[in-house]
Amino acid sequence: MSESPNPSTPESLRFEYVPRPGLFKLTVINFLLGIITLTIYRFWGKTNVRKHIWSCVHINGEPLEYTGKGVELFKGALMVFGLFILPYVLATQGLKFVWGEGNPTIVGLQSLFALLIYLLWGFAVYKARKYQLSRTLWRGIRGTLVGSATTYSLTFFGSMLAKGFSLGWATPVMNTVLQEQIIGDMRFGDAAFKFKGRAGPLYPTYALCWLLSVGVVIGGLVFFSVEIYNWFGPELIAALNRVFHLENQPPPTDTDFWSVTSIFGALVGALISFMLLIPMLWAIYTAKEMRTFANYTRFDGAQFKLDATTGGIIWLAVVNLMLLVFTLGLAWPFVVQRNVRFLIDRLSLEGAIDVDRIQQSMAAIPTRGEGLADAFDIGGW
Amino acid sequence: MAVSAQYFDGQSAKNQTVSVLEDGTNLRFSGDETPSTVWTISGLHAVDPPSPGQPYRLTHDDKPGARLIIRDGNFIATLVSRSSHLKGGYSKSDLSHIFGWVLGGLAVVAALGYITVALLPDRVAHMMPESWRNRVGKQMETSLVDNARACHSPAGDAALGSMIGALAEGTPELPPISVHVYDIPILNAFAVSGGNIILTRQLVETADAPDEVAGVLAHEIGHVFHRHPEAQLVRMEGVQILASVFTGSSGGDTLTSIAGLAALLQYSRKAENEADAYARETLTRASIDPIGLKHFFEKIVKLEGESKKVSGSFAALGNLFATHPGTEERIKEITPLPAGITAKPSLSDEQWKALKSICG
Questions:
Q1: Cβ-based neighbour number of residue B247 at 10 Å
Q2: Are strands A62-63 and B189-192 parallel, antiparallel or unpaired?
Q3: Which chain B residue lies closest to A34 (C-alpha atoms)?
Q4: CA distance A63 to chain B (A)
Q5: Would you say B49 and B89 are in contact if contact means Cβ atoms under 8 Å apart?
């Protein structure tokens, strides 16, 4: 546009989370209005929470602004409901009535639908990201994704297949490819993000986590079967037989009940600790991947840095889980806030950027939001 | 008094320093790179509510992409105290928009709910071919009786057959009926899809006269005649679909299940009344004394005081005692045969003995 009279100077960008009061109030209002409107208000509730949290993210003292509207999310959900979910549910339920449960055609239809969901998953992720970027302003300039959601969703589908067939070993490569695609499409105004780097450096950490997980599972199984046998041996088998009335055994005694109960207790305990231990192990890889991907990302020549640690991620996830469990999910705005804050507190950009030069992009902006992502329950952050 | 502020024009990320003045109706600002601009206060919108330590951001109807950012606390306080629409949050037009969409959404849900609960089930139930009704009925019967023994004896079966024959006479539009007695230690009778009626051993043994069993059977045949079990199946399926589709992924399931259950219960109450009316007509047509049914109902009410037992899953069926409220009124509705009709015994003494001992 017009030439500025004085040449602008590049500045370095600082990210800061500056909390403001009001999130608790929003949470309560969302809950109450959710009840009154039979959950329809959730689209506006989600929007208000984003407005609040976005406005707490300051870059060089200038807060972000979320300009999305509840009605955009509502329309997106209506589209998916009408074009996708309702026809599917009506078709399968109707056919179930006509042909009975377990009919091969219905099973086929359901598998086809499952396949469709996998195919569309990446599409939903991309569209949701695009919507959120286009509704995010900083200094009056919005972001966007300029690429094709279809291409991304095909890559995404391929990456799921590759991960599955390689027993997970394709994960670092595929995640790198996906990240390169979506970051490469990302713009702030007319300024571009770039992602460049190899998956190689992720592999030692990946191998470590993979082998540790397998080790934990096998080790745990061996340990428990040996222990169980040592503790009880044939005694236990006899007790189990009596408790479960197998083969005309004499009636079970109190001791029988005790040993059987303690065995099941031990098994359940083991299962829960596996379920907690294994995700914790994988936090090592997640932290490594986040740090590496940040290093691979550039904006207008400046390089990102993310100081994510394994312990930090575990703590984030554990507290988030507790928050959700103990409030029956009502505290989700605080979970979003914690996630955003986790990133902002650890994110930095090395190098200076000539921000004044950045112009608004003329790319078309989406008019509806996140229908599919909402249906699939894909979190924004 | 003019204060310093920042201006972003929505075209460039350039931070323009401006000086702002406010005179109660207009906001005027200009700067080195910013031409002199007048924004009416009535056209202003606050991006978020004013909050200490946070910049206060304004935008204007004339230029929705531009942002004016003020940090001077006094200036903000004066501006906001005079113009309540600058306190942030929803404006009146926002609220009416939201209200409209939410109301529209609720109306669509209500319409779909009405179709699912009130319009469709009866029609679908009457359109269902015999083969589906039977297949579904067999499934329901199997899951309902849960491996209980089916009671049969040649004389008992014959007695039941003659009773059904008497009750079904003169109604050619009635679908085929088959009645089974099961050795189940609860007192109940059910009509399931496909014209299948289940009586429990305890019901047969609790009855003191054949007229009582005939009355119960007439009621269950009423359910069959009106296709109540089939309609209720369609209704339950529909409510389930609606609830799952509507609440989507996040929360609210309990709320909608309660609403759905209320709708279902309402319809089973209506079904009970229809079946009662059908029973009254049928008994009159077959010249069987309805007082038998009345006695039996009274017996149930007494027993019920001792134990509450009909569980929720039975609500789907044409259950004899479903939806308790109003049992007393239902009893009152049963009147003796009209004058001029002489009651005939519904079974002979030998037949009655055979039926009573059908479970051995």
A1: 19
A2: unpaired
A3: B252
A4: 8
A5: yes
Interface of A with B in 97-136 (CB under 8 A): 97-98, 100
Interface list for B 127-166 with A (CB within 8 A) = 128, 132, 135-136
Which of B101, B124, B132, B246 is the best residue to mutate to test the A interface, defined by the most A CB atoms within 10 Å of its own CB? B101
Instruction: Delimit the domains of chain B by residue range.
Output: 3-89, 106-356
Mean pLDDT of B215-223: 91
Query: Which stretch of DSSP H or E encloses residue B66?
Result: strand B63-70
CATH fold of B3-89 reads PH-domain like (2.30.29)
Q: In the block, which residue shows the tokens 């546009």? A: A1
**A220-268 per-position pLDDT tens digit:** 888 777 777 766 667 667 777 776 766 566 666 677 777 677 777 777 7
| Other beta carbons within 10 Å of A190 | 15
| SS3 (DSSP) at B207 | coil
Are the CB atoms for B206 and B302 separated by under 8 Å?
no
At residue A251, the pLDDT reads 66
Separation of alpha carbons A52 and A341, rounded Å: 13
Whether the Cβ atoms of residue A213 and residue A283 lie closer than 8 Å to each other: no
The identity of residue B310, as a single letter, is V
For position A196, what pLDDT does the model report?
Answer: 94
**pLDDT score of A159:** 96
- Considering the entire predicted model, what is its pTM? 0.77
Contacts across the A-B interface (CB distance below 8 Å): 132
Distance CA B239, CA A80 (A): 20
Q: Give me the interface pTM, i.e. the ipTM.
A: 0.80
Confidence tier at B105 by pLDDT (50, 70, 90): confident
Q: Collect all residues of chain A within an 8 Å Cβ-Cβ radius of residue B97.
A: 71
Chain B residue with minimum CA distance to A85: B245
Q: In the 8-state DSSP scheme, what is residue A67?
A: -
Q: Tell me how far apart the alpha carbons of residues B24 and B44 are, in angstroms, rounded to a whole number.
A: 12
Measure the CA–CA gap between A198 and A301, rounded to whole angstroms.
18
* Structural contact between residues A12 and B74, judged by C-beta atoms closer than 8 angstroms: no
Please name the amino acid found at residue B194: G
> Residue A235: what residue type?
E
Residues 210-269 of A with CB under 8 A from B: none
Nearest one of B225, B239, B172, B173 to B197, comparing CA atoms: B225
